[in-house]
From TrEMBL:
It comes from the Eukaryota. It is a single-pass type I membrane protein. This is TIR domain-containing protein. Keywords: Glycoprotein, Immunity, Inflammatory response, Innate immunity, Leucine-rich repeat, Membrane, Receptor, Repeat, Signal, Transmembrane, Transmembrane helix. GO terms for molecular function: signaling receptor activity. Gene3D superfamilies: Ribonuclease Inhibitor, Toll/interleukin-1 receptor homology (TIR) domain. Pfam families: LRR_6, LRR_8, TIR. The lineage of its organism: Eukaryota, Metazoa, Chordata, Craniata, Vertebrata. Belongs to the Toll-like receptor family. One of its GO terms (cellular component) is plasma membrane. InterPro entries: Cys-rich_flank_reg_C (IPR000483), Leu-rich_rpt (IPR001611), Leu-rich_rpt_typical-subtyp (IPR003591), LRR_dom_sf (IPR032675), TIR_dom (IPR000157), Toll_tir_struct_dom_sf (IPR035897).
Length: 949
């Protein structure tokens, strides 16, 4: 048998067709913003934070790598909430109300590396909380209400490197003992709990890999190390421990590698000395915030390896050499956030190696002379003090200084900086400087970064910055600049960033000569000034014609009235421009050739302008454009954008416009679009947007930002309804679905036909003729009921038996007995199909006589005749079939039609006598059979199975 092969083949074809038309899942997610594209899922992020969510959104893309659900109202994490995120690497559910994590809730997150559960209401961590998280490296459980942790809770976390359990209600250190046993744990934060003691026997008896241990803000009464279990420990936090804490480290070598120690707020009196002596051979970084005794500084400086000392927020009013005498090897000293008013001249006299000094957030009214002795200083922070003046000699001896912070001082004037030949960064922001003329002379030859933001500068002179040959960043924003001299920035050939935003610069000050010499300038910020033009005619001297290397230009938000007009050659010279922000300029028209000077634009912002109509030619030159912002511009159509053929657009922000319909042409025009913002448009909620809604939900390339918030404006009865919630099924004809259905049906028919033909060939033929007879029946019934049958019997025979029919049957039955017979050679209508003649003859005859011989059983036409006659038997429930056997035929040679007749108990048949036997009984039985009524009951037994003898 060969049937199984085609059946399997057809089945595979059907399944492949089914797979091809299955719709792909898009990444339209209610209350989430998706960053990235499903085409490149390696960086796919789902940001669902700060959405007041009570449940985890169900249709976040399965390929998401980073999921942020922080700052919501989640109460629990259920087993099925995260079941599909098998690729997730970072999960943040911090700042929720989570009280319960069901066992196995994270079992599908086998790729997860970082899990943040901080700031929730967890009380218990059960044994099945972290199933299958064998790749997790960072776990945050800080700021919960945890009182109990199962001993097996952390067993699956074989890759865990850092865990934070700070800010919980754990009372005994043995409750976190399983964490110390993790093979790869290196960083453990268990501060702000209720631990009253920390003893190594409670933790481990074997050597651990731990590098960071934070026990701060615990009421520790005992800290005891009796075994060498922390050979790799580098950082130890004991801030704000119990003032009467017993320090028992039996061998200083047990903490031999601790280099960072935090003793902030500790009040151990004399005991603190023994603590510090423990680290006398290793400690390099010590924090003593909120120090109450200055003498402790001197004690700390006795630690030979100490290089960094933080003494912040200690309310120190003064500092002298007495406290710092032993700090000769310090490299970093942080005295910020104190109340320092007085620093003695020799306070830093012994600190010959000091490189970083922070005196910020104190009450100094001048630069302390104490710094003059710090010839090795590289970073000096004097910000947030009360310094009014800077003199020429303030930094004379700081030849190695590279970074100087002077921001947030009430400086009125600055004398020229001298001897700062290595200074690279100078920050004098948020002061009261009116002028910087002569401040930056030739001594600052290496200065690269100059920040003068938030001062009171109003005039930029030519000589102000001319000597700063190495300057790369110049920040002059948030001043009161109205005038800039011609060539004010000449000589600044290395300048790449010039920030002039939020000043009072007008178009009269913005001349090309102002920017002459800035051959390498890449970023120019001129937004929030007072640029304004009376018309759009060409400028004689475009302001940016010398800026051939400029890549970013910001000119948005000009004055109270805006820029009003955009000269057609305003951008002339900006051949390298890639980013232009020109929003909120009160523009209502742009010349078609406006951007012809900047064909390399990648990002363009024209938002908050009244550009109700935009010509196609305006965007035609921008073939590289991939980001376009045009929100709140009054747009009613995006035809201009489609006609410009901007195929590279990836980011499109057209929110708060007058767009009512997003049609198929629009969708097809931007094949690379990954992000589109359409919020705040008055959408028409009818069939014109049906395709857009379907696309927004199903497409897996373009993210429609906050699509669930799009609302209807038309018709009025639907105004305010959510566009995505409307039913557009009556509008949409899913051609793909109908194609699938029709294809599937076609394939199934072929399969069914093949099976029938192979296994049930004759049954199919039989059913075909039954159908023909049925169709013929309705037409013939009216005739037979009104006029009766035309023949008494239809004779079905094989041509090999024609001699017997003509010489025996016809003379006796038609001649002697008077019956009218239907014979095919005599009564069939010429030209009519044979099968039609057979059906007509049988249905016009009361009976059908089948003359059966071996030749008859081999004849195809005879088989069809008996099939049609059998149909009458089944359909009319009447015995209309008479079988005449001309020879003795064994039962196993009988056709299936005879066996079928036998099964339904229609057993009227007559056998022709053998040669020499009397034939009178045969003809009598045949007469009785023809006379018998067509009853549906069992035949007269006398007529069943009788021979002619």
């Amino acid at each position: 048998m060969q049937a199984p092969l085609p059946f399997c083949t057809y089945l595979l074809l059907m399944l492949s067709c089914f797979v091809c038309v299955l719709p792909t899942n898009g990444f339209f997610v209610i209350n989430c913003v998706i960053k990235g594209s499903l085409k490149y899922p390696a960086n796919l992020k789902a940001l669902c934070n700060k959405r007041e969510l009570c449940v985890i959104p169900h249709n976040i893309p399965d390929q998401t790598r980073v999921l942020d659900l922080s700052y919501n109202h989640l109460m629990s994490i259920k087993k099925k909430d995260l079941i599909y995120f098998t690729k997730l690497t970072h999960l943040n559910v911090s700042h929720n109300w989570i009280k319960d994590i069901k066992e196995g809730a994270f079992r599908s997150l086998t790729a997860l590396q970082e899990l943040n559960l901080a700031h929730n209401n967890l009380h218990i961590i059960s044994g099945g909380s972290f199933q299958n998280l064998f790749n997790l490296t960072v776990l945050r459980l800080d700021e919960n209400q945890i009182t109990n942790i199962s001993a097996s809770a952390f067993d699956p976390l074989i890759s865990l490197v850092m865990v934070n359990l700070s800010g919980n209600h754990l009372a005994h250190i043995h409750e976190v003992q399983p964490l110390f046993q993790l093979l790869n744990i290196q960083e453990l934060h268990i501060g702000r709990n209720g631990f009253s003691s920390f003893q190594t026997p409670q933790v481990s008896n074997t050597s651990l890999k731990l590098r960071v241990l934070d026990l701060s803000w615990n009421p520790l009464r005992v800290f005891r190390i009796t075994a060498d279990v922390f050979p790799h420990l580098e950082s130890l936090g004991l801030a704000f421990s119990n003032e009467s804490m017993t320090w028992d480290v039996q061998d200083a070598s047990y903490l031999r590698n601790v280099s960072t120690l935090n003793l902030t707020g500790i009040e151990m009196n004399e005991e603190i000395k023994s603590v510090l002596q423990t680290f006398n051979t290793s400690l390099t970084n010590l924090s003593l915030y909120r120090l109450k005794e200055k003498t402790l500084i001197k004690t700390a400086c006795l630690i030979n390896p100490l290089r960094t000392l933080h003494v912040q927020s200690s309310r120190l009013a003064s500092i002298s050499a007495k406290e710092l005498t032993g700090c000769t090897d310090l490299v970093t000293l942080d005295l910020s956030e104190n109340s320092l008013r007085n620093i003695t001249n020799l306070a830093f006299g012994f600190m010959t190696n000091l490189k970083r000094l922070s005196l910020s957030r104190n009450k100094l009214d001048s630069v302390p002379p104490a710094i003059w002795n710090l010839s090795s200083l590289e970073v000096l922070d004097l910000s947030y003090n009360s310094i009014y003046n800077l003199t020429c000699s303030d930094f004379n001896s700081l030849a190695q200084l590279q970074t100087l912070y002077l921001s947030r001082n009430p400086l009125y004037s600055v004398k020229p900086f001298q001897n700062l030949t290595n200074l690279k960064t100078l920050i004098i922001s948020s002061s009261r400087l009116i002028s910087v003329t002569n401040c930056f002379r030739a001594c600052l030859q290496k200065l690269e970064f100059l920040d003068l933001t938030q001062n009171k500068l109003n005039y930029i002179h030519k000589e102000d910055f001319g000597d700063l040959k190495s300057l790369k960043h110049l920040l002059l924003n948030d001043n009161q600049i109205t005038t800039i001299d011609k060539g004010a920035f000449e000589g600044l050939q290395k300048l790449t960033v010039l920030n002039l935003q939020s000043n009072k610069i007008t178009q009269s000050s913005l001349k090309a000569s102002v920017f002459s010499g800035l051959t390498n300038l890449k970023y120019l910020l001129l937004n929030n000034n007072y640029l304004s033009y009376s018309d759009q005619s060409n400028l004689v001297k475009p302001p940016f014609r010398y800026l051939k290397s400029l890549e970013t230009l910001a000119i948005h938000s000009q004055g109270h009235k805006g820029m009003l007009n955009f000269p057609s050659n305003f951008l002339e010279g900006l051949t390298s421009l890639q980013v232009l922000t020109a929003g909120n300029l009160n523009l209502n028209f742009l010349y078609p050739n406006t951007f012809s000077h900047s064909p390399r634009l990648l990002s363009l912002d024209l938002s908050r302008n009244e550009l109700t109509t935009v010509s196609q030619e305006l965007f035609t030159p921008l073939k590289r454009l991939n980001r376009l912002h045009m929100f709140s511009t009054g747009l009613q159509s995006m035809d201009f954008l489609m006609q410009a053929n901007l195929t590279e657009i990836q980011y499109l922000q057209i929110s708060k416009n007058e767009l009512a319909v997003i049609n198929e042409t629009f969708i097809a025009s931007f094949t690379n679009l990954t992000y589109i913002d359409l919020q705040g448009n008055p959408f028409s909620c009818d069939c014109s947007n049906a395709l857009f809604v379907d696309w927004a939900i199903r497409n897996n390339v373009t993210q429609v930002v906050n699509a669930d918030q799009l609302t209807c404006n038309y018709p009025s009865k639907l105004r305010g309804n959510k566009l995505m919630e409307l039913d557009f099924e009556s509008c949409t004809v899913d051609k793909g679905f109908f194609c699938f259905i029709s294809t599937t049906v076609f394939i199934l028919l072929i399969m069914f036909s093949s099976i029938l033909y192979h296994f049930l060939k004759w049954q199919v033929v039989y059913a075909y003729y039954r159908l023909l007879a049925f169709l013929y029946k309705s037409n013939q019934q009216r005739k037979t009921q009104s006029s009766g049958y035309q023949y008494d019997a239809f004779i079905s025979y094989n041509t090999h038996d024609e001699l017997w029919v003509m010489s025996e049957l016809l003379p006796h039955v038609e001649g002697e007995q008077g019956w009218k017979l239907c014979l095919h050679h005599r009564d069939f209508q010429p030209g009519k199909p044979i099968i039609d003649n057979i059906v007509d003859g049988i249905n016009r005859s009361r009976k059908t006589i089948c003359v059966i011989s071996r030749h008859y059983l081999e004849s195809e036409w005879c088989s069809r005749e008996i099939q049609v006659a059998s149909f009458r038997l089944f359909d009319e429930k009447k015995d209309v079939l008479i079988l005449v056997f001309l020879e003795n035929i064994p039962p196993h040679q009988l056709s299936p039609y005879y066996r079928m007749r036998k099964l339904i108990k229609k057993r009227t048949y007559i056998s022709w006598p053998k040669p020499g036997e009397d034939t009178r009984v045969f003809w009598e039985k045949l007469r009785m059979a023809l006379e018998a009524k067509e009853s549906s009951k069992e035949e007269n037994p006398i007529l069943s199975g009788i021979s002619g003898t």
